[in-house]
Amino acid sequence: MKFRDRLEWIFRIALLAFILTSVAFLSALTAMRFAIQGREVVMPNVVGQKTAEAQQQLQGRGLGMLIEDRTYTPAGVDMVIRQTPPPGMKVKVGQSAHVIVSLGPQQATIPHLDDLSIRAARIELLRSGLQAGEISSAYLPETGGDMVLQQDPAPGMSNVTSPHVDMLVSLGPRPAGYVMPELVGQSLNEAESKLTGIGLRSPKLTLTPLPGGLHGTVVGQTPARGARIDSSMQVDLQIAE
Fold first, then answer.
1. In this structure, is residue 4 part of a structural domain?
2. Which of the chain's ends, N or C, has fewer CB atoms near its CB within 10 Å?
3. Phi-psi map region of 238: left, alpha, beta (phi>0 left; psi -120 to 50 alpha)
4. What pTM does this model have?
5. Dihedral of CA 134/128/108/113: which sign?
6. What is the pLDDT of residues 6-20, one digit of tens each?
């Protein structure tokens, strides 16, 4: 076989291989597309069902269920009253339905939580069949720390729809503030003396390999110089080995 004929033969074989590879690639893409579309199912309607029944129906279609919240309603206890995504929507297999479940009619009265510690307030709520909701905190002068100052809903209410009670908790007076000094370049003893001298606790130390650095010298600090700090904060110092 002449060199030119042999070259043409090799070119034809390469072209044929390219065509076959392209066809196989396109076929794989088409099959993948159909497979992805085939994993779509219709979201069933689980509103009005008990959670166990709803979960069983969803699992039968390859779907999960997440309980987002529980609320007081005239519906029966443990009954699904709302769902997302809505019924009839096409979803991927493995997706979860987010549901809200009924606690039944309201039977509890909101207890008085003011001046209780947050732990005591949680216990009181559990005794009343309620739960702690959002807890906000603030530094307030002339108040003790870890004390409930306000609550929502107010004490004595019985016509609420949610079992959650939000609380504002005092952290007590704000700790005295300081300006973070510059400690880089100082020895560990000097840095610790400066921190304890302004009322801060001993720093957390991290040894850092630093060629040419003086052993026991501060080479980094957190917070940085000039930052506002207080006695409750932990200062981190990087020390040259």
1. yes
2. N
3. beta
4. 0.50
5. negative
6. 667 666 777 777 777
